[in-house]
Amino acid sequence: MTAHIAGVSMTPFRRRPEATVKALTAEAVEDALKDAGLTIDDVDAVVFTTTMQGALEGQHAVAGQIAMRSLGFQRGPVLNVENACASGDTALLLADQRVRAGDADVVLAVGVERMTVDKAGALAWFHGAWDVHEADATTAGLLALGADVLTPEGVEEPAPEAKSLFMDVYASLSKFHMQRYGLTARQLAAVAAKDHRHSVANTRAQYRRPFTTDEVLGAPTISWPITLPMCAPMTDGAAAAVVCSEATRRRLADPGRAVRIAAVELASGSDRAPEDLDHHLSVLASGRAYERAGLGPEDVDVAEVHDATSFGEVLQTENLGLVPRGEGGAAAERGETTLGGRIPVNPSGGLVSKGHPIAATGLAKTHELVTQLRGEAGERQVEGARVSISQGGGGFYGIEDASTCVTILEAAVTPR
Q1: Partners of 345 in the beta sheet?
Q2: DSSP code of 106?
Q3: Which part of the chain is the Thiolase N-terminal domain (predicted)?
Q4: Quick one: the chain helix, strand, coil %, rounded to 5?
Q5: In terms of DSSP H, where are the helices of 244-349?
Q6: Could you read off the pLDDT of 361-407 as tens digits, one per residue?
Q7: pLDDT at 413
């Protein structure tokens, strides 16, 4: 059984504290169904995700049922899922599984987040995205990875009480890569500058200002080597994907716009040694995804990866096999991962430009890649894109993500 994505949508990612979860959900769902040429009556099941609504608004349960009811979806199954920043990716995985199992012809995957209504509360939420019983040990282990790489003299960092623990963690992971593989701060800046340039052509991105590498390097330091333009902003937004069976795809007004889900694989973190990157969960998940799809990294035309900071893009391009281990930063600096380069990465602008509404992020990547594979991305179109890959990671387990989901999509074979 094969599953396809018949429709996608994402709201503009912005600071929209006045918009409710219901309103954001409605915006994304209605646009996705319109894109597919279907209606809510065609939907057999919904996979819904929002990670912060319980903490910020007190809606601790049945969020999907409540958000979908006003849209006319009643009596059918609603699955509520949470996997931190990989939640949207996981929603797509569950929709894919339900269709391939023959349990449904049309499943709607929806991710929505309303973060800016309570910035302090949103920041506090992150401290529950790892083992709260081992938080001190986890923090110490992560920060120790970069302890041997010293911050250069003259670099001004925020006062300790004003710093973000999670940015310190990303900085430590970056330093570990610097020590082991020679990654430089300038290469990190080149990654961020590339993504900010890409965002200029994305009208749905939160930030659309181009940066040069020097401007990124000269921006305020958050936690060296991480500067402000290397960090994803908090934002509000929703995204959705309509997943359908082959039988439904054939009935669509334009079956050639549907994109085949070649593989979706989910992996969890392990107790691996820091140096054992061959067993990083993204390596394992992507390996299974490539095998299931019958493809390899050499077949990928375009990628969207999780870059809560720009170091994330460096690491994940290596983990997915798109560049050799240790060369993620150098490849970006050479222009290999820019639009027009050998393997464009984050043509949407990535999280650092587009914004990062946690539960919506994975499905926003899906929106970008489906748009690319349809040839409908306009100024940011990757020429001839036929195969795409995305990666989304969530939470922390020890020294790596608690969860990572890797998705491979293929353009339709049916001519449009």
Answers
A1: 303
A2: E
A3: 5-208
A4: 45, 20, 35
A5: 246-251, 281-293, 310-319, 328-334
A6: 999 999 999 999 999 999 999 999 999 999 999 999 999 999 999 99
A7: 62
